[in-house]
Amino acid sequence: MSQVINFLIAAVIAYLLGSILSAKIICKFTGQPDPSTKGSGNPGATNVLRFAGEKLALMTLGGDILKGLIAVIIGRILGVQGFFLGLVGLAAFVGHLYPLYYKFKGGKGVSTGLGVLLGLSPVVGILALVTWVIVAAIFHYSSLAALVTAVLSLVYALLFTTPTYLLPILIMVGLLVWKHYANIQRLLAGTEDKMSVDLMSLGKSLWAKGKTQVEELQKKRMEQKVEKKTEPKATQEEKASKQKSATK
Questions:
Q1: Domains identified in the chain, total number
Q2: 162-186 pLDDT, tens per residue?
Q3: Rounded distance, CA 64 to CA 224, Å?
Q4: Predicted model pTM
Q5: From 84's CA, which of 151, 192, 193, 243 has a CA 20 to 30 Å away?
């Protein structure tokens, strides 16, 4: 009985977490327009990228992944396992699609689904994330990347995780494909919008910035070491004396 109660508690928490739309919150607190009124109207990272830029899109992506991951972690903490843990992840996913706080009008669940997969199986989650990045980088269609990733995530789940997760993951994939029905129609018609940012260029840019920051940090550390070595002996002795007196 306690296991059933723990599952129900975890599922409710997961749904409420899933109902938090990162895109709407981030845009509101940064002075950006409501994502439901801009671009595709979808409150997700790709749409935020269209009108608010890379930084806010990455924040949205991170927020949506985290809520799916945290929902599954809470389920684990409460002792939920196997098929029922998969259902907890599904509850978070459904929360994003039909959020309680926004009149049940949500997003398409790609990022939240990735978070759920990471929580159920880190291997499957990482493979799904890498798949999305590769397909998006090659073809420049976020929707195509999401659909390919969704289908392949079932294969990854079959190969690398317990069969008890398969039905919840299958339901997530079915819902995700259904939410992308209009995108599928546009892809077939050749009218689907491509991503506004080249992921390869973005990746190189982020790598260059990170490398520069690391180099600057290393340079500062080297300068501090040089200053310490060249510091007059008398000054060093004074510091040592002060430290000794402070410890008395």
A1: 2
A2: 999 999 999 999 999 999 999 999 9
A3: 41
A4: 0.80
A5: 151
